[in-house]
Amino acid sequence: MSTALKHLQNFIRAKNTDDERGEIRAYVKEHAAELAEAFGVSLRSFVSGVDFVGDDAKLAERLVAEIKRSRETKRAAHRTARAGTAQASADVLGAASYWDRDRAVVDIVSLVASTLTSPRDLLVFEARRFDTPVAIPMAPLFDLARLERADFSAFVDAEGLHVRWATGGLNLLPVIDDHAERVIVHLPPRQVAWRDVTEPAPDNDNAHGLQAVAQ
Q1: pTM for this entry
Q2: DSSP H helical segments within the chain, as ranges?
């Protein structure tokens, strides 16, 4: 919330009584230009809106409601921007992950530093190898971030996210929450290893070639 709206909110709280409520209208008119900018409307529209509400009590009520709406709108915009940045980081970090047999090794230090949005949200690891995405609650990851350790290591498998450090570890199990916001980590496909093989062929019993072995 902007400084102008904070000051207006505090003024309304102090003056919203039968004896002093009229001062709210005077305050609003005196600071109309900065308040219009804070509310994101033109000065003309703001002044007209104030004049349209003739009752001082209703004006105070309307201003409080508009302050709340403005605050919620800015919070939503900030959250959307944060989620976009977090998702962009998750895309980069997911592509940099690698497979060690059935485990995807991830840069957990960078993940907790750049992809967390809210303790109520989920960090979701998606891979062809998993029957279902591995959705991990962010709340314990926020707790890990507060430790500010540089020796974290982690891997993801179908059972969850497994974090390790020099003196301990933590296994985070997947959860199901269809209502939670999500940041998706798209894990890369497992690479294909090639090895020399000799196998019979219809036209050459001694044919040599390469055989792909899925990892």
Answers
A1: 0.66
A2: 3-15, 22-30, 32-39, 43-52, 56-96, 108-114, 139-147
